[in-house]
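Suppose a colleague, Dr. K., hands you the sequence of a protein chain of 142 amino acids and asks what its three-dimensional shape might be. Before reaching for any lab equipment, you can write down a predicted structure in token form. Begin with the sequence itself:
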Amino acid sequence: MTEGDLHVRGSLALPERELRWRFSRASGPGGQGVNTTDSRVELSFDLANSPSVPEPLRARAQQRLAGRLVDGVLTVVAAEHRSQLRNRAAARERLAAALRAAMAPDPPPRRPTRPSAGARRRRLDAKTRRGQIKRLRGRPDD
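The predicted structure, expressed as tokens, is then:
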């Protein structure tokens, strides 16, 4: 793993050469340099054709990111900072977070459980007490 590589999870890191950067003018505040600074950052990663991602992780990520992929390419945008450098860092972190979430293993299946007898009794007792409180709010019987 070299300096420019993007660490995703565990031993998986995307080499800098597989990342594609695009810069454009961002909207919003910027002072005098607002019309000349290309501070908006687009970071793209070709997930479908990347040799760095193992096949099982790639399949899982492609399935989970299906709505965000365009021809197998995942693109993230960062334009919230005025500095291109900070937007680059934000885009790198956003891409890593998206891939990390998409490649995470499935949660273990849920085992159905039943409330204990004591829990059922406490629940019914609480309902009874609540009903008594509400009954006492009514008009007194004459």
